[in-house]
């Protein structure tokens, strides 16, 4: 059963005592001198431990909760922020600098993301080397399995490189642990070509997606990576690859790469891909998998998203750091008839899960003991009320929040304590809806920015799930009203919280040119993050990105 297999990712993945492998790019101190693998890889369980270890680590940087790809991608964009709320949220000013694009090469959060992501890449490279130099019989597996594991790990390493390239652009390409000692920076185009080659050479060696591959890299994950590569190819290499994007998307849409629950398809409801048993979703293509009931692993994103007293709202056992809010004005971009507005976002008075007639009371902030009401603004409303002044006249910026400022996250559901899969909600990396949007955009770009009938059908197939049938006629798209600007806006509504907003804004030329809330336009050099100075001190062959010297 797939639930049992999800457990294997953590029980096997955590059982291997692999050390931190930042040394695979020699970007940190020597840390590989104690690990001896000659006495490892002797049976199937040891092999699986090494193969699955990178998946447990990916949770650290792919999802919210630590300074990794997700945080850098979303808190620098135009939908989410982590403002100061009273006495909470300063955190050395890192959220403020991400929001205003004032980060520097000495930024600890950028250094941490670099470390986590290159570490994860090393956790793929080490078992690749070990599997390639051993025979299948010596490891107690078949040759078919050996090749499949190598292919899976090379695809997963390519995924790490894709996201590293997304953030930093120009980085070293390393395929052996510790060799070369001080790798030189490769251009973004060279990294792009390496990723593409690794995917194309290995995608047929891995299984198609099935219920046995939930949470693992399959052919579906490989084709989804190709879609992302080709969708962003013009930004990343200077050469558009729209037709290649369409072709890769069609492999997924047509079901050639399998599905985790039979034939891949859009889920009928907007909640199916985000609920506690979302491994039953038909549209998820690749995800970070959790199985709290069997392996005691749980999502880490509650710290970023949940209020101090969130358990009273959800009926669960987890609270958060009262961090992430939706930037003022984003909530209003969802029409009231849009079911995503009420289902994926928390706004207004909050009531107890165990008694919906009773308000949730504030905790650890200005609203201690008072009803919690999430508002679509970031200002000190309570202070104004106490002073008898108009809250509308108050300043609103990253330093002026209070405990209940901002509309909140409600997209992924952990469930309540009695739910049989409570706290086991998988975090989606790619889902079929995202593929539909990518193909639609590629079709429009090929057509000079004008929507084709096929592009409209693709977006409407997704969007219609967010409306009752009686409302749909007023909100469906046509070739007349689905412009590129409207496509970007609809991407914002559909993929809010999913990590792609920075990438989208860059592709549409809006990341450094647009203003949002209190954020002013910045410089095009901010479309890449700086290579951390700490890493450049350790490896003199690392080049700095433009604008940071």
TrEMBL record:
Residues 282-548 form the RagB/SusD domain. It is found in: Cell outer membrane. Keywords: Cell outer membrane, Membrane, Signal. Gene3D superfamilies: 1.25.40.390. InterPro entries: SusD_RagB_dom, TPR-like_helical_dom_sf. It comes from the Bacteria. Its main location: membrane. One of its GO terms (cellular component) is cell outer membrane. Belongs to the SusD family. This is Starch-binding associating with outer membrane. It comes from Parapedobacter luteus. The lineage of its organism: Bacteria, Pseudomonadati, Bacteroidota, Sphingobacteriia, Sphingobacteriales.
């Amino acid at each position: 059963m797939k639930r049992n297999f999800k457990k294997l990712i953590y029980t096997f993945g955590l059982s291997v005592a692999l050390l931190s492998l930042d040394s695979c790019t020699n970007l940190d101190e020597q840390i590989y001198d104690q690990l001896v693998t000659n006495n490892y890889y002797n049976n199937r369980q040891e092999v699986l431990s090494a193969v699955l270890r990178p998946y447990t680590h990916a949770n650290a940087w792919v999802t919210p909760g630590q300074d990794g790809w997700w945080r850098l991608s979303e808190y620098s964009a135009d939908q989410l922020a982590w403002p100061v709320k009273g006495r909470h949220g300063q955190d050395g000013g890192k959220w403020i600098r991400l929001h205003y694009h004032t980060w520097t090469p000495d930024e600890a959060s950028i250094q941490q993301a670099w470390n986590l992501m290159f570490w994860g890449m090393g956790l793929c490279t080490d078992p690749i080397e070990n599997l390639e130099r051993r025979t299948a019989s010596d490891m107690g597996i078949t040759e078919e399995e050996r090749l499949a594991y190598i292919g899976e790990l090379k695809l997963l390493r390519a995924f790490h490189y894709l996201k590293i390239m997304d953030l930093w652009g120009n980085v070293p390409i390393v395929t052996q642990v510790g060799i070369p000692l001080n790798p030189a920076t490769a251009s973004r185009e060279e990294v792009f070509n390496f990723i593409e080659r690794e995917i194309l050479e290995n995608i047929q060696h891995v299984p198609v997606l099935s219920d046995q591959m939930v949470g693992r890299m399959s052919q579906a994950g490989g084709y989804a990576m190709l879609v992302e590569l080709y969708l962003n190819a013009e930004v990343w290499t200077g050469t558009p690859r729209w037709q290649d994007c369409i072709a890769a998307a069609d492999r997924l849409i047509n079901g050639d790469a399998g599905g985790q629950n039979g034939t891949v398809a859009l889920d009928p409801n907007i909640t199916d891909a985000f609920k506690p048993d979302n491994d039953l979703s038909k549209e998820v293509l690749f995800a970070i998998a959790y199985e709290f009931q069997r392996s005691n692993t749980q999502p880490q994103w509650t710290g970023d998203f949940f209020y101090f007293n969130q358990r009273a709202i959800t009926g669960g056992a987890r609270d958060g750091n009262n961090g992430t809010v939706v930037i003022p004005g984003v909530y209003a971009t969802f029409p009231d008839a849009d079911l995503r507005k009420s289902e994926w976002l928390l706004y207004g008075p909050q009531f107890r899960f165990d008694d919906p007639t009773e308000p949730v009371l504030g905790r650890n902030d200005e609203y201690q003991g008072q009803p919690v009401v999430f508002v679509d603004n970031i200002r000190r409303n309570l202070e104004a009320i106490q002073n008898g002044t108009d809250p509308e006249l108050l300043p609103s910026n990253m330093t002026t929040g209070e405990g209940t400022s901002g509309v909140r996250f409600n997209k992924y559901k952990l469930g309540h304590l009695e739910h049989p899969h409570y706290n086991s909600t998988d975090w989606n990396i790619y889902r079929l809806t995202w593929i539909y949007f990518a193909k639609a955009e590629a079709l429009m770009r090929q057509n000079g920015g004008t929507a084709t009938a096929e592009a409209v059908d693709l977006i409407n197939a997704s969007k219609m799930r967010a409306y009752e049938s009686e409302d749909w006629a007023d909100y469906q798209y046509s070739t007349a009203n689905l412009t590129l600007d409207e496509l970007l806006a609809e991407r914002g509504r559909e993929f809010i919280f999913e990590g792609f907003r920075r990438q989208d804004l860059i592709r549409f030329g809006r990341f450094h040119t647009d203003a949002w809330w209190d954020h002013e336009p910045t410089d095009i050099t901010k479309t890449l993050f700086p290579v951390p100075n700490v890493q450049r001190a350790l490896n003199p062959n690392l080049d700095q990105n433009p604008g940071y010297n």
